[in-house]
Amino acid sequence: MWRASVLTIFPDMFPGPLGTSLAGKALASGAWGLDVVDIRAFATDKHRSVDDTPAGGGPGMVMKPDVLGRAIDATATDERPRLLLSPRGAPLVQERVDQLSRGPGVVLVCGRFEGVDERVIAARGLEEVSIGDYVLSGGEIAAMALIDACVRLLPGVMGAPTSSAEESFADGLLEYPHYTRPQLWEGVAIPEVLTSGDHGKIAAWRRAEAERLTRERRPDLWAAFLRRFRSGSRTG
Ligand SMILES: C[S@@+](CC[C@H](N)C(=O)[O-])C[C@H]1O[C@@H](n2cnc3c(N)ncnc32)[C@H](O)[C@@H]1O
């Protein structure tokens, strides 16, 4: 079973949104598992301290390597990748999500304060992963985003097996626009081709729209798509 272990100083935040909808149903049915580890339980002083002042001075606090190291050692006893949620990390992309969802699961370390002592990152081989170029107050919401993205790809979790194959990023493109009834809403009709019943034309329209949106909104993705297309590998 795919398993996520989350190390946090706020264990009560979990499962949070992961306990509802698709992920929640899959969790309840045993399609995936969640262990939440309270980092504070590995503190040894009477105040159960998990942080200390930054070496060299400056604002804020830093998570202590000894406490976090013990929490990781007690949790990451198998081959699952160990990820530290971090704004400095490699941006999380669908390709990495696909890889993670095909593996045994993840061990996720949630930072707080100014972050984590650098030595524990190196010593425990933590892979730093960011969910975007902005700063959250802690890694928990980032961990939830990563878990949600993985869990929906697990076998049997999403309704139709083709759901993820056509989504944004699956072919390096953003997804085409969607429409549903009513046919006319506020004077705007559903594009005629979508109600034509001609599956070939619908597929061609969707493809053209996906390419247009990607070109207009994400020049970075569009350039990468063109590079792959020209080198003869659309999915690689
Ligand atoms: C206030 S942030 C620390 C920011 C850090 N001082 C910096 O400037 O890079 C506290 C924690 O939130 C989490 N976090 C914040 N932004 C994140 C992001 N974009 N992606 C993933 N985790 C994030 C990390 O675990 C981080 O250690």
Verbal overview:
- With 236 residues, this protein is of the alpha/beta class.
- The chain has 7 helices and 9 strands; from the N terminus they run E-H-E-E-E-H-E-H-E-H-E-H-E-E-H-H.
- The protein has helices spanning 21-28, 65-75, 94-102, 118-123, 140-151, 199-217, 219-230; strands at residues 2-8, 32-38, 51-52, 62-63, 82-91, 105-110, 127-130, 184-185, 188-189.
- The strands form 3 sheets. A 5-stranded parallel beta sheet has the order 2-1-6-5-7, sandwiched between helices. A two-stranded antiparallel ribbon has the order 3-4.
- A hairpin with a 2-residue loop joins strand 8 (184-185) and strand 9 (188-189).
- Helix 3 crosses helix 5 (140-151) and helix 6 (199-217) crosses helix 7 (219-230).
- The radius of gyration is 22 Å and the shape is elongated.
- The mean pLDDT is 96.
- The structure holds S-adenosylmethionine.
- Residues 85-88, 110-112, 114-115, 130-132, 134-139, 142 line the site of S-adenosylmethionine.
Topology of this protein?
Elements: E1 2-8, H1 21-28, E2 32-38, E3 51-52, E4 62-63, H2 65-75, E5 82-91, H3 94-102, E6 105-110, H4 118-123, E7 127-130, H5 140-151, E8 184-185, E9 188-189, H6 199-217, H7 219-230
Parallel strand pairs: 1-2, 1-6, 5-6, 5-7
Antiparallel strand pairs: 3-4, 8-9
The structure holds S-adenosylmethionine (SAM).
Residues 85-88, 110-112, 114-115, 130-132, 134-139, 142 line the site of S-adenosylmethionine.
